[in-house]
Amino acid sequence: MIDVRVPDEQEGTKAVVRAWLKKVGDAVAENDPLVELETDKVTQEVPAPAAGVLTEILLDTDDEAAPGDVLGRITAGTYDPLPFDAEQGKAEPAERPAETPAAVIGDAETRLSPSVRRALMQHDIDPSKIRGTGRGGRITREDVDRAVASATTVSAGEPSTAQPCHFSGTDIPHDRMRLKIAENMVRAVSDAPHVTALFEADFSAIAAHKKAMADRGVKLSYTAYIVKAAAEAMAVAPAINGRWEEDRIAVSPTINVGVGTALGDRGLVVPVVRDAGALSLEAIGRKLDDLTSRARGGKLTAADVSGGSFTISNHGVSGSLLASPIILHAGQAAILGVGKLEKRVVVRTIDGQDAILIRPMAYVTLTIDHRVVDGHQTNGWLARFVEILEGWPAP
């Protein structure tokens, strides 16, 4: 018997079993996708560690799974399917709470697993109103999910074919990512005293450089420039790239920049550009393209979203002029917010004379953990960041 375990690269964050991709009794090849795990950051597939037959499932759908936990077991070697009872092979850990006693509605077996009971309680659904698709009519977690989804997609005034529950047609049930984001937000504002400073940046030099690079066939996003400038600005206030510890301020030896990436209604993830201070602008651009593409395709790994020492929220891409993002990630001291880039009228001194000009401008904020840095460091960092953007040399 070979154990199938939760990967260790979870940074202590508990995952949740989203779905098994194989059933007990299925033959599997080595490295076949076996089970899907979900955290607040990523969804990842756990491959089969060896070829054989999936013999046991110990952590089922919606169960929490910490790094190193045994998800299931594979019997290696050849397999004769005839004597094997797939349902009997599906085991549950000894410490799992006992199932509710079996009850019968009609001819359907309605024993409820712990994960199904939790889902029914969360969404206030009467189990007698759900048609179970499991063995003997047993209600599965997928049955509950379908009932909730059906109830929330019925338009007002239309006859409902959904299973009865206490949601209106416009309510949105919490998914695991939303619940985890909420938990992290509350923790963040409770743990760290937040202070936000606001500057304004002229993107004229960046826009000119970006266009010149595009003419040469190198396409770069504004975010690539922002990441590069943020990494260079760390030199004037290294503690911005640090974190609060009980006995010290620990400064990260590398500048690992997390970039908030919106997933539409699915929430937000923060993939990390590692060692951004050592990368060229072009290398940062390529890395961002790869991370963003995989984030929106649900292909990020746990390593892609771990280890960040500083975060950027480019909230302006969705239209906001100004925001003061929360330092969401434990172990970081600051988060940069960049507002919408738009043309504004500004006054500049040219040859000793004031001139009214139209320039591409954006508000930039730095929200800091006031335990780690003070106002003069915050303003010094922002001043250097803006100076780098506005003085970007021509290619």
Descriptive account of the structure:
This protein has three domains: 2-89, RNA polymerase II/Efflux pump adaptor protein, barrel-sandwich hybrid domain (OB fold (Dihydrolipoamide Acetyltransferase, E2P)), CATH 2.40.50.100; 104-173, no CATH class; 178-390, Chloramphenicol Acetyltransferase, CATH 3.30.559. It starts with a strand and ends in a 5-residue tail after the last helix. The strands form six sheets. Strands 11, 14, 17, 18, 19, 20 and 21 form a seven-stranded mixed beta sheet that branches. Strands 1-8-6-3 form a four-stranded antiparallel beta sheet, with no helix packed on it. It contains eight helices and 21 strands. Helices cover 25% and strands 26% of the residues. Helix 2 packs parallel to helix 3, helix 6 (222-233) crosses helix 7 (281-296) and helix 6 packs across helix 8 (375-390).
Key structural traits:
Chloramphenicol Acetyltransferase; OB fold (Dihydrolipoamide Acetyltransferase, E2P); 25% helix; four-stranded antiparallel beta sheet; elongated; 395 residues; alpha+beta; 3 domains; single chain; seven-stranded mixed beta sheet
CATH architecture of the largest domain: 2-Layer Sandwich
Major sheet details: 7 strands, mixed
> What is the CATH H-level superfamily of the largest domain?
Chloramphenicol acetyltransferase-like domain
Average per-residue pLDDT, rounded, comes to 81
- Say how many strands there are: 21
**What share of residues is helical?**
25-40%
- State which percent range the strand residues make up: 25-35%
- Residue stretches low in confidence (pLDDT < 50, at least 5 long) are 79-110, 152-165
Label the structural class. Answer: alpha+beta
The helix count comes to 8
What shape does the CA trace take? elongated
CATH overall fold name of the largest domain:
Chloramphenicol Acetyltransferase
Order of helices and strands: EEEEEEEEHEEHHHEHHEEEEEEHEEEEH
CATH class of the largest domain: Alpha Beta
